[in-house]
Design goal:
By secondary structure, this protein is of the alpha/beta class. It has one domain: Vaccinia Virus protein VP39 (Rossmann fold, 3-Layer(aba) Sandwich). The chain is built from nine helices and seven strands. It has a seven-stranded mixed β-sheet. Helix 7 packs across helix 8. The protein is globular, with a radius of gyration of 18 Å. The two termini are about 20 Å apart.
Length: about 270
């Protein structure tokens, strides 16, 4: 059962993303316009070109796909374009409305509703593929959200979830700016990330912790990914992309967890 502290934190998280949905800051176009969505998609592909390698949009035709945390629908519409039987949820009304506007602009159909990742409104085993990119580290109980993701995945279905990596260059940058340079070197990476990275209470995980969020999944893998954010010197100034090639993968900001929900009787736990 959620504590009063968790409820208060979730309210703060929701308020943060209601005000500025992910990817919408400094877009410079009228919200909801074609130019607005096109710019957001361009920026996302430019900054995170590896998303398609994990989401495998083209593979999803005819599959029952759930995205947990659609934001403004940038990845969501790529699943819709690919012909997925698509459902999406977001904690915010703002995100849901923008995702619906995006679908309408492109003449696409999908179900989008407001819901909490820690209590998904779907029956067990509803989806072939459940995807969540950069979302559950913002909720007060990421392990509960992870368990919900596994619960609604069908036996034999796939899970793909990205969370932040604590032992990363971004984590180090955050610590230098908010702990070392402020004369508080005793503050931990977890503490500065929770207080200074995006919405209040943001979590970041070690590789081992990220894997432990999803006990029971088969063929479980946790992949570290170096991002442009790892070579960002200020909020808007990045080193040339070539610098990312010399950054060791093990200190990348993204951890991508992938696995298969076991089929009962074919080895492994049920994952539920």
């Amino acid at each position: 059962m959620a504590s009063h502290e968790d409820d208060a934190l979730k309210t703060s998280v929701k308020s943060f993303w209601e005000k500025t949905p992910c990817g919408t800051r400094d877009i410079g176009a009228v919200e909801g316009s074609r130019a607005f969505f096109d710019r957001i998609e361009f920026d996302r592909i430019e900054r995170e070109p590896f998303i398609g390698r994990f989401a495998r949009f083209g593979k999803r035709r005819g599959q029952r796909v759930l995205e947990v945390g659609v934001g403004v629908g940038t990845d969501f519409v790529r699943f819709a374009r690919a012909g997925a039987r698509l459902t999406g949820v977001d904690l915010t009304e703002h995100g849901v409305e923008l995702a619906r506007q995006r679908l309408t602009l492109e003449g696409l159909e999908a179900e989008v509703r407001r819901a909490d990742a820690e209590s998904l409104p779907f029956t067990d085993g509803s989806f072939d593929f459940v995807y969540s990119w950069g979302v559950i580290h913002h909720t007060p109980d990421p392990a509960r959200a992870a368990a919900e993701i596994v619960r609604v995945t069908r036996p034999g279905g796939e899970v793909c979830v990205m969370v932040y990596h604590r032992h990363s260059l971004v984590g180090l940058q955050c610590w230098i700016l908010n702990a070392l340079l402020r004369g508080k070197p005793w503050r931990s990476f977890s503490d500065v990330i929770a207080h200074h990275m995006e919405s209040p209470g943001t979590r970041a995980f070690s590789i081992e912790e990220a894997g432990r969020l999803f006990p029971g999944l088969e063929r479980l893998s946790v992949t570290t990914v170096v991002t442009l954010y790892d070579i960002r010197l200020t909020r808007s100034f990045y080193l040339p992309r070539a610098f990312s090639a010399v950054v060791p993968d093990r200190v990348g900001w993204f951890l991508v967890v992938q696995g298969i929900k076991p089929i009962a009787g074919e080895g492994g736990a049920s994952g539920e």
